[in-house]
Please model this.
Amino acid sequence: MKVVLINHSDTLGGASVVTARLASALRAEGVDARMLVVRRLGAESPYVAEAAPRLLSKACFMVEEGMTWLDNGLHRRNLFSLDAARAGLPLHRHPWVREADVVCLNWVNQGMLSLRGVERIAATGKPVVWTMHDMWCATGLCHHAGECTRFRDACGRCPLIERPARSLDLSRRRHERKADAYSRAGITFVAVSTWLAARCRESSLLRDARLEVIPNAFPVDEFSLIPALGRAELGLPDDGRHIVLMAAARLDAPVKGLHVAVDALNRLAASGYSEKVLPVFAGELRHADALSGLAMPFVHTGPVDDPVRLRSLFAHAKVVLSTSLYETLPGTLIEGQAAGAWPVSFGRGGQCDIIEHLRSGYIARWLDADDIACGVAHAVDGDHDRASLRESVEARFAAPAVARRYMELFSKILSQKQP
Model:
């Protein structure tokens, strides 16, 4: 079986990382899986290729973003939160697409693939599977609808567009164009969490679509209950305090809810937990004062690019904390569990696919800092079985298990296309 996975990058961003992992996992199971990207940033591989000359890719990006900029009233704000998919590369002509038995789309925005390009790939007769890493396939323009519900009908009056609100705005027009493209292409959609699938089912675009749920593949076997590096090597005090780890590419991105984490930890400090808990924050902070209100000693490591250091941090942690307002399928919680850390998070997203409340983690009431503090205290004061936490994710999220689920889906689709 030959499968080509199409994604904007091979390393930049969460969708890129998990798509590359899936390609590797499929190859390990005997599938001839290859990956097409706009720009290859990772190690050179014969199975990862740039989809077009860089000048052409750059031109498509500029045209796509330029048209959206004009439609957004010449405002840059929210520009990269919107994708209209009007410009893109002619990927239906690429040899890997023409040779493939199945084409698997992933995150293909910012000028990589237009809706017309999707139609052209489908017109080759290849089955198209589209793995959704956010809500873009279910909305007119945006990647996450947040509290907006206009995508349930046909969008319009988009709150992210800077022009005066109109029913027949760019979001409505692209919503209608997506509906037309989907009706022609016969796509099988895959959501990476049950939460994302439920959100997409609310959309008039995907309400009646073929939609499966298969989680992202994670390298569970690369994580260990025993840290490779000691606390001193990681720059952490070895004073017996339990590490509560919060990790993200950008910790103070609005969606990460860092202020809720600080509030919850301050409530723990007020209850006497400063002698028990050491908060550790791993990732970029664009606002230097984002942690200035924290009332207990903490460590900010900055971005952690070394995988050995990152896995050691997880293995030392008693708790892996996420206060994200919503997450499609938060990888840090899976990685934390794979290293034996107790996850504490809200349930607004794919967290409920990962955590069984009080058995393999703690699901707090949404935006409730008190309940987050309770979840952390429950872990710090308890004695959970680190090995069972690892086992809880191994069967569901390990790369071989996820690859086999995709193989079953591909085989089923191919058998249905045979006369």
